[in-house]
Amino acid sequence: MDKQRVFTLSQVAEHKSKQDCWIIINGRVVDVTKFLEEHPGGEEVLIESAGKDATKEFQDIGHSKAAKNLLFKYQIGYLQGYKASDDSELELNLVTDSIKEPNKAKEMKAYVIKEDPKPKYLTFVEYLLPFLAAAFYLYYRYLTGALQF
Ligand code: HEM
User: Fold this and answer.
1) What is the pLDDT of residue 98?
2) Atom 18 in ligand 1: which residue has the minimum CA distance?
3) CA 39, 45, 47, 51 torsion: positive or negative?
4) If you placed Cys at 82, which of 26, 63, 65, 78 could pair as Cys (CB 3.0 to 4.6 Å)?
5) 26: Cβ below 6 Å to ligand 1?
6) To test ligand 1's pocket by mutation, which of 49, 63, 71 has the most ligand atoms within 8 angstroms of CB?
7) Within this chain, do residues 126 and 102 fall inside the same structural domain, yes or no?
């Protein structure tokens, strides 16, 4: 199904049974009907939240990144008035960005690959520092008389 569909709160509220269970997490409408039996936290908690916004409950449990990823698997749309910035609160950004803007994610990857992997200060450490060390050593030897030009 098209994940970009927009639902109103009352539309979501109609899907509140075990056979048809939608919940809202961070402005995302998620159809968890097929996930009820799989949910490690049990189906009861999901059914209790059916047709409602369960963002707070979802957040309070401290669901893992894997659980957050599952949201997108079961997402069927957005709640009317949803703002993409809302995701930052639930730290969904990392997982959502590639889904919301797949092209941008690709660009980012390409950008990272093209980037010079060596930080600038490495050039200094790698080349200039050994040179300076050698110069100081020779100068020291010269001062102590061990080296004569
Ligand atoms: C679509 C929404 C949800 C998904 C995809 C989901 C997914 C998961 C997953 C994968 C776990 C295993 C632990 C982890 O990876 O974090 C889990 C555990 C759990 N979830 Fe959910 N969950 C959802 C919604 C909820 C809601 C709304 C509640 C509460 C009202 C809830 C309560 C719990 C509890 C109590 C556990 C067990 C935590 C534990 O054993 O420490 N979940 N959930």
Assistant:
1) 45
2) 41
3) negative
4) 78
5) no
6) 63
7) no
Per-residue model confidence as pLDDT tens digits over 22-36 = 999 999 999 999 999
What are the angstrom distances between the C-alpha of 69 and each of 103, 111, 145? 19, 24, 70
Q: What is the ipTM of this complex?
A: 0.87
Tell me the CATH number at 48. 3.10.120.10
Cα(104) to centroid(ligand 1), Å:
30
Q: Is the CB of 32 under 6 A from ligand 1?
A: yes
Q: How many domains does the chain have?
A: 2
Give me the domain span that covers residue 23. 5-113
Residue 23 tokens, joined: 């919940």
Residue 121 counted as domain residue: yes
For the question of whether the overall pTM of this predicted structure is more than 0.80, the answer is no
Q: Is residue 106 domain-resident?
A: yes
Going by alpha carbons, the residue nearest to atom 8 of ligand 1 is: 67
- Region of residue 5 (phi > 0: left; psi between -120 and 50: alpha; otherwise: beta): beta
